[in-house]
Amino acid sequence: MFTYQGISIRVVEQRDLERIRVLRNDPSTWIYLTDVLFVSAPAQERWFAKISESTDRKYFIVYDAVHEFIGIVRCDEIDHLNRSMRIGCDIVPELRGKGYGSRVFDLLLNYCFDFMNMHRLWLLVIDTNQAAIRLYTNKGLREEGRYREALFRDGHYHDYITMSILEDEYRSRA
Ligand SMILES: CC(C)(COP(=O)(O)OP(=O)(O)OC[C@H]1O[C@@H](n2cnc3c(N)ncnc32)[C@H](O)[C@@H]1OP(=O)(O)O)[C@@H](O)C(=O)NCCC(=O)NCCS
Q: Using CA atoms, how far apart are residues 160 and 166, in angstroms rounded to an integer?
């Protein structure tokens, strides 16, 4: 586990799978993700077996003293040679808009730069996800470019925006 300013992450365990699946299958979550297919319980078990063995992607449960399941953090495309990693998080619908995403990103930046020794953190966000874009911009991530009309959502094509923050940008903000 890792704690930063009252919020914590821990590894995903078997007992978390159903809650992760419910969060992933909620339309208010998947509408913003790359894949719009729903996840079945057996598929979730296979996913868990795969991530448990994986060295280049890690998932964490977010919790604090009050809430045992605030959401999930994704760290994938972990590249130790180039010290680069993709990050992301999903907050449960009932806790969105209360500052948890912001606190999770403070934790993630601290963990990835000061403990994982990363040089670059990056992510992809659909152009309709105003809450996420605002959050990432607030935390110092910058737009690098766009995969134009890369995502088809609700009958329209949307850009997939790539954003990143470098170690020195993080340190100069801190
Ligand atoms: C994106 C997400 C992680 C943000 O977490 P959150 O806890 O809701 O965000 P916070 O409450 O910390 O707010 C972060 C910023 O976004 C803004 N924000 C929150 N909800 C918003 C909304 N619906 N529209 C516009 N801005 C919004 C907040 O005002 C805040 O900015 P501010 O500090 O300048 O006021 C969360 O909403 C979520 O899980 N969404 C569904 C899944 C998802 O989009 N995952 C990310 C895929 S890239």
A: 20
Ligand 1 binding pocket mutation candidate from 22, 23, 62, 96 (most atoms within 8 A of CB) = 96
Q: Confirm or reject: Cβ of 32 under 6 Å from ligand 1.
A: yes
Q: Which domains does the chain have, with CATH numbers?
A: 2-173 (3.40.630.30)
From the CB of 34, is ligand 1 less than 6 Å away? no
pLDDT in tens, 152-171: 999 999 999 999 999 999 99
How many residues appear in the chain? 174
pTM score: 0.96
Distance CA 122, CA 4 (A): 20
